[in-house]
Every structure is written in C-alpha cells, then in structure tokens.
Amino acid sequence: MADNYLEKRYEECFGKGPTKTKKVGHTVEELLTKNRSTRGYKKDFVVSRAMLEQIVAVNTRIPSARNQQALRFRLVTQGPESQIVLSNVKMGGALPELHLPFPGTEPEAFVVVCSAKEEDKMVDIDLGISLQSMLLKAVEMGLNGLIICAFNKKNIQEQLALPYPPLAVLAIGKGAEQFELTPISEQDNHAYYRKDTERGTVHFVPKVQLKDLIIG
Question: Mean pLDDT, the chain, as a whole number?
C-alpha cells in the first residue's frame, strides 16, 4: 500500500481542508490520518528502548492540567516483561470473534502509563493529551500504536513491580495492517470492522462527518 493512501482516501471522503502554502515535514492532518489503532505488527522490526524514550520525551513539552505533571512511564521492550504485558491485555473488543492480535503479529513493545497522584479528572485530561501526543510521535517516526485500556491492572502493577497503579498501556511497533477511514452520519453504527478487498483485508474505521460534529 502506498504511504500516502490514507491521506488520499481521507481527502476523497472528508475534503482537502485549507490550501497549503508550504510544507515542512509532516502536517498535523497527515499524522492524524496515519494514526490508526493498530493491533497487528511486523515481527521483523524490533522497537528499541531508545525509540520508546523518544516517544515518551514528548511529555516534557505537552500541556498538563494545573501543570501537575503526574504521569510516569514504564518502558517495556521485547523480552520477559513484554510477555507479562501481552498476557494481561485485551485488544479488538469490537471484533471478539477474531481473537486479535493474530498469532505472529503481537506487539512486543509497550509504554505503561501510571500516575504518581490519585486518578481524577485532571489526571485523565493529562492522560488523553499524553497518549495522543505519544502516538503522533510514533507515527512521525514511521511506527504505529494502540491505546489499551482493557487490561489486568493488578497483575501488571504487581508483575512489573510498578510503584504506581497503571492507567493505560500503549503498544508500539511497525504496523502490519491496512486501514481506511469511512464517513458516517451521527446516527450510523460507529463500530469498526474488517473486510476483504482487492488490496487484502482492510480495517475500516467509521468517522462522523464534520457537519454532524458542529452544533448550530
């Protein structure tokens, strides 16, 4: 699949947006379009600790509610700890019949996000900003990721000897899946789905159109 396939399909479905005068590196729109929740990864690509450090480093520059900066991060690369995380997470909840990820495509690198303060609304605001920012950095680096909130918090905290309870797990790797955004109205089914096409199996992601997002 061509690297810019998703961007072209996005423009076909949702429009090109404002006219660009000069492009320097990746645009925000390109990064957002490429940032898809990926559940299958290439095993021949190994994510290093240095790569995870680059991704987590965005947290030194992003906003924080009340500037409390309570989030802390455990970096997990290929090895025994990776297997601990993998055995305690669930992926693809909307497609339970597929038992994702498929054997041989499991992620092997993770960022476990914890909070040094008790979780509240402000911590959750920081969590959302952090996870999205880290994913965009991963995409900029040519990687992919998945936010995982369905996991055994007690097991992961105990088995990784974390000093704080985990709030979310971010899987990182080189994606092995194809995606397509498809526009829907606010009344349509929002669930993602997979379908065989001439390009192979494609993971379709319904997105509510702009006209239905704006009130008045």
Answer: 92
